[in-house]
């Protein structure tokens, strides 16, 4: 475990400041999924998890995961709240807390028992931990607003076709998909009533400041994230003519009001694609070439209600970039220090950036990183080995996530030859 800053070449070990422990003790494998949601309940006593019997494996939509939480007050005692076959290794079943004054509630996706409605294949379930009751909603969720009032939803069958690492396999055959229909896109779902409305269609995105590469491509949306005040959200619009090769994905970063109005384009990375030539050999594409692409826009997150951090290019230079929505300014964050794409989030006070890296091609290790914005210091909290044979869709990224009080970090990892969640105490640094 190491600390670096731009003025030092020497390495200082800081492992005594950052104790790490696995959560739970059992023969099962546990993971949470993505980086932009907290595993901890608001009081930091309950800790969400997905429990499975295998460390890896290709998913067909038939494998079942147990959904539940660890009680950190009771020696990590596990409680199941449901089961699901609608999950993937990268995002799980989109298990997340519903923050409101209505009690301690969690939401997750599952497969529909009766296929009907606008989204016949998948549903979401809100589970009230205090009352031990469950209520089904008509759409699967992507992200819940911090207010707890609504969720944003997408078509997971479209993700299964375009980006299967974050999609769900259908039970009754994959549906036929139009490239950019007016009937698909981003849905708004009221969590109290279940009322759902399409607020940003793919056809609308196709017609919004279009570029030539969109004409024959299939379109989708991903990386939806709601602002802290729940009034706006961000998303990435992607399109491609070659879904089997992620280096052919093209990207645009948007923000929009919660009701779908006031659509604003922040960045577009339309660029030539030699991969579309008949002579191109897709076998030459490495497992993580896509994540490390100089054209990639990925992992956007809100710093606050008026600014967004993202890994991506701006003015022909790729960095962590901070977009100020009020002024239009775009600033590089940590140039020369934060040099790799990762899953980043700001601390609540904006002083720290938590992120990670993808595996090094030689050591197969990933770095867990804290970056001090004011001092321009990078703290490498640890390097975690991952098995190269996990592959693209089954890999285990660290996906670091803050605790509500920003003194702890949770990660998923396979460095002990089992897929588990870990808690890292970072209070010795951030304090």
Question: How is this structure best described in words?
Answer:
The protein is built from three helices and 30 strands. It is mainly β and 431 residues long. The strands form seven sheets. The protein has a six-stranded antiparallel beta sheet, with no helix packed on it. Strand 12 and strand 13 form a beta hairpin. The longest helix has 7 residues, at 156-162. The model is unreliable at 1-14 (pLDDT under 50).
Shape: globular
Category from helices, strands and their pairing: mainly beta
Summed up, the helix count is: 3
Strand numbers in spatial order across the main sheet: 2-1-27-26-25-24
**Total beta-strand segments:** 30
- Round the Cα radius of gyration to an integer and report it: 21 Å
- Helical fraction: under 10%
The oligomeric state of the chains shown is single chain
- Low-confidence runs: 1-14
**Distance N to C terminus:** 18 Å
Overall pLDDT metric = 91
Biggest β-sheet description: 6 strands, antiparallel
Strand content: 35-45%
What is the topology?
Layout: E1 2-5, E2 12-13, E3 20-22, E4 29-31, E5 46-52, E6 65-71, E7 77-84, E8 96-98, E9 105-111, E10 122-128, E11 133-137, E12 143-144, E13 150-153, H1 156-162, E14 185-190, E15 196-201, H2 202-207, E16 218-226, E17 232-240, E18 250-257, E19 264-268, E20 298-304, E21 307-314, E22 317-324, E23 330-333, E24 345-346, E25 352-356, E26 365-372, E27 377-385, E28 401-402, E29 408-413, E30 420-425, H3 427-430
Antiparallel strand pairs: 1-2, 1-27, 3-30, 4-5, 5-6, 6-7, 8-9, 9-10, 10-11, 12-13, 13-14, 14-15, 16-17, 17-18, 18-19, 20-21, 21-22, 22-23, 24-25, 25-26, 26-27, 28-29, 29-30
């Amino acid at each position: 475990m190491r600390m670096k800053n731009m003025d030092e070449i020497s390495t200082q070990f800081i492992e005594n400041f950052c104790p790490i422990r696995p959560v739970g003790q059992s023969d099962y494998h546990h993971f949470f999924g993505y980086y932009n949601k907290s595993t901890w309940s608001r009081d930091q006593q309950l800790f969400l998890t997905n429990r499975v019997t295998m460390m890896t494996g290709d998913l067909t939509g038939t494998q079942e995961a147990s959904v539940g939480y660890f009680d950190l007050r009771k020696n990590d005692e596990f409680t199941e709240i449901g089961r699901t076959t609608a999950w993937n290794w990268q995002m799980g079943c989109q298990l997340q807390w519903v923050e409101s004054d209505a009690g301690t509630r969690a939401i997750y996706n599952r497969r529909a028992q009766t296929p009907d409605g606008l989204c016949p294949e998948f549903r979401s379930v809100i589970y009230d931990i205090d009352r031990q009751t469950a209520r089904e909603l008509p759409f699967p969720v992507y992200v819940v607003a911090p207010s707890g009032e609504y969720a944003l939803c997408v078509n997971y069958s479209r993700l299964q076709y375009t980006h299967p690492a974050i999609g769900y396999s259908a039970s009754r055959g994959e549906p036929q998909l139009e490239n950019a229909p007016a009937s698909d896109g981003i849905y708004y779902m009221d969590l109290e009533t279940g009322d759902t409305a399409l607020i940003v269609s793919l056809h609308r995105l196709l017609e919004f400041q279009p570029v030539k590469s969109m004409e024959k491509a299939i379109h989708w949306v991903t990386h939806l994230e709601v602002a802290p005040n729940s009034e706006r959200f961000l998303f990435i619009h992607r399109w491609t003519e070659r879904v089997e090769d992620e280096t052919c994905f093209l990207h645009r970063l948007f923000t929009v009001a919660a009701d779908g109005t006031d659509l604003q384009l922040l960045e577009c990375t339309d660029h030539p694609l030699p991969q579309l030539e008949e002579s191109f050999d897709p076998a030459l594409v490495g497992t993580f070439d896509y994540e490390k692409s100089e054209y990639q826009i990925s992992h956007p997150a809100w710093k606050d209600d008026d600014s967004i951090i993202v890994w991506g290019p701006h003015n022909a230079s790729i960095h962590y970039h901070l977009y100020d929505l009020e002024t239009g300014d775009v600033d590089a964050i940590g140039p020369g220090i934060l040099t790799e794409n990762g899953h980043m989030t700001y601390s609540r006070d904006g002083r720290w950036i938590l992120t990670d890296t993808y595996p090094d091609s030689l050591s197969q290790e990933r770095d867990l990183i804290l970056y001090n914005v004011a001092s321009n210091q990078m703290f490498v909290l640890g390097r975690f080995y991952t098995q190269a044979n996990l592959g693209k869709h089954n890999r285990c990224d660290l996906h670091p996530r803050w605790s509500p009080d920003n003194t702890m970090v949770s990660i998923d990892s396979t460095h002990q030859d089992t897929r588990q969640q870990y808690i890292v105490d970072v209070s010795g640094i951030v304090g």
